[in-house]
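Data card: per-record layout.
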Amino acid sequence: MTEIKRAFRFALDPTPAQIEILQRYANASRCAFNFAHAYMLAHHHAWHRGRNVLIATGMDKAEATKMAPRVTMPRRDRSQAFWRETRGQGFIGPLREGAERSDPYRWWERVNNRAYYTAFEDAATAWKNYLDSAAGRRAGERVGLPRFKAKGRCRESFRLVHTTKKPDIRFTEHRRLRIAGGVGQPAFTVRLHQRASRLIALIDTGKAVITSVTVARTGHRWYASVLCTVDQEIPDQPARRQRQAGRVGVDLGVKSLLALTDPLHLDPGTPAATVIGNPRHHDGTARKLARAQRQMARRHIKGSRQQSKGFQEAKARVAKLQAQLAARRVTGLHLISKRLVQQYSEIALETLNTKGMTRSAKGTLDRPGRNVRAKAGLNRAILDASFRELNRQIEYKARWHGVQIARVPTFFPSSRTCSACGWTNTTQTLKDRTFHCQSCTMVLDRDTNAARNIKNHAVPVQ
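The structure for this 462-residue chain is written out next.
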């Protein structure tokens, strides 16, 4: 048995009164994040002023960065203490010319304090990621400066944590989730759209403990993601049936979502297949989504913060369509990733640079690009296929089933190399859907040939 962190996501069916409470919690979390971000940004600007003074004296910018007076960035506990000191005084920062001082935060007492504390923690984490990335202590792409969360643009969400000794978050019934209220406010119980019997059984047997819950709005629905510490049995090696199946090579593409070297059973009533078609979820919703977006654009009042009721309805319609599109896409990927880790002991994948693959081809004014419209359509198809999400699901599910992951490098020519003799076709383009080997005269589908190369040359990763 291994202790892991696992989230269980449930759709909620709140009453109109409960929707108002959830929105209040989400607004409070957004306000707390902006409060902590502004507090940390003020310290960051103080450091910038000290560095600019040294630059004004003629010092080099790199040297001034090292010699600037150190400013200790406040952590979550300091932001929390500052919030306690000033939360009844309203906005205490500098005012713009002609602006009036805002009213005190009279609504903070009606929200659970943990919604604020988790927002302070998120702001501190965002600043730590930015500073570590700027100093070279964080691997990966450069992390930008944290930004304020704008009302109406950011995702409506909040997170609540509790202690296991006094659990405020618990299931009262199979379709009832209890969430703690604010200071002097009673707790409220939200109805779930589906039963939580599986998670409740794990909690009753002592195999799962709830640590936090994140409530967020996606489209027209509210969801609760219950994070638990679960004692899960993770096998040291795959099952005998998986070991007999061995390794499978997987090539991801746009024309067909997956091309495999060995058959894959998706549904019990359908035969196994080596090619999984691309459902192209975006194409099925493109016309309806474009019509809704045009309607929202017509109802938008430029330069005004107060939008009409018709604009709000059109915006909600667009959000609903986008949420349904994302749900259909991720559901299909979950089915594919689950079947892969259940049927094979080793999965060979390619390391894709999706950001580079979807880079725009429009070029510059001096050197304009070619086939820009066709490249834009290809970029949409690649993003709709969600290669990165499928890789992520396969990776974490493989750990649960004791399955080994193997990969080939990013620029490995899997589509241009003959899987039989190793000859490389340097003149092959995307239009060539069949691979013709001029050395051994092998003729094979392009994606199937790539899957075989991935299976033969992939190296296991830790």
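Known properties of this structure: The CA atoms of residues 331 and 406 lie 24 Å apart. Residues 1-91+102-233 form one domain.

See the next section for split statistics.
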